[in-house]
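queue> pop job 88
queue> type: inverse folding (structure -> sequence)
queue> payload:
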């Protein structure tokens, strides 16, 4: 029966020299620790091993089906239907397991897109600079300074974060500012998580409502500029984790880009949002 399996070349799932070279190149070009770990796993043959196991399962299923079709009257009798069913289920299970790794692989290579969104002058650019640890975005007291999206890839575990500072969300008669808002909306549409920025709880509620019309991504609230208004009443412990801040349906963290208050708690909430509701 295995003779039927020989129709599929033994080299079908064997990595070619070009593939191995591409993997080595991926390792050298990895933009983050997570991407580098993934490239090293590929170089070590982990993916090839899984593909090899899948190949064996497919060959077995093909042999069973070919035997059943071409030799139905053999002395050995028909093959038990349960054996064929079990073999096909094993192939499907291995395919599902491989496909399930795709989202994490994309996140590991490209980073999870985390968009900072809110009205103009809500402290988004200052917060991004604080999260990155260096001045990557121009900060000004004048509303509407940010007209285009600014991306910064930050190494993180288990996957990197692609932080995106965006133009303030508001209606405007300025054509250039409207273009900036359109860019913000496009980033929101493909975000994995959104940090909603505002200076007050009512402002945060309004901001989150506007964001929710543009994305289905989970929202983490950031009450910004706490160095200017320290008595916000928002805590970063259990209350922030539960999101029970004046009825808001998402976690809220009070932050100060100037002093660094709440930044670690905000990162933790973002990672929890990316991990999903059951994390």
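queue> result:
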């Amino acid at each position: 029966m295995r003779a039927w399996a020989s129709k599929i070349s033994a080299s079908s799932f064997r990595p070619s020299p070009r593939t191995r070279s591409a993997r080595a190149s991926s390792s050298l070009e990895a933009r983050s620790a997570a991407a580098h770990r993934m490239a090293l796993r590929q170089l070590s043959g982990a993916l090839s091993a899984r593909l090899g196991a899948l190949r064996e399962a497919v060959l077995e299923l093909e042999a069973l089906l070919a035997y059943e079709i071409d030799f139905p009257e053999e002395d050995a009798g028909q093959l038990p239907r349960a054996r064929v069913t079990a073999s096909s289920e094993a192939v499907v299970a291995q395919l599902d397991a491989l496909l399930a790794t795709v989202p994490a692989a994309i996140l590991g290579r490209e980073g999870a897109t985390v968009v900072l969104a809110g009205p103009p002058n809500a402290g988004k650019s200052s917060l991004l600079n604080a999260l990155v640890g260096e001045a990557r975005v121009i900060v000004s007291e004048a509303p509407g300074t940010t007209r285009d999206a600014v991306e910064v890839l930050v190494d993180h575990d288990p996957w990197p974060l692609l932080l995106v500072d965006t133009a303030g969300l508001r209606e405007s008669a300025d054509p250039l500012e409207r273009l900036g808002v359109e860019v913000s909306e496009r980033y929101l549409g493909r975000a994995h998580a959104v940090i909603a920025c505002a200076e007050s709880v009512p402002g945060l509620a309004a901001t989150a409502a506007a964001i929710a019309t543009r994305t289905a991504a989970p929202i983490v609230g950031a009450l910004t500029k706490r160095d200017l208004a320290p008595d916000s009443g928002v805590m970063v412990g259990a209350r922030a984790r539960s999101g029970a801040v004046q009825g808001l349906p998402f976690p809220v963290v009070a932050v100060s880009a100037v002093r660094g208050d709440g930044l670690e708690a905000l990162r933790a909430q973002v990672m929890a949002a990316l991990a999903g509701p059951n994390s």
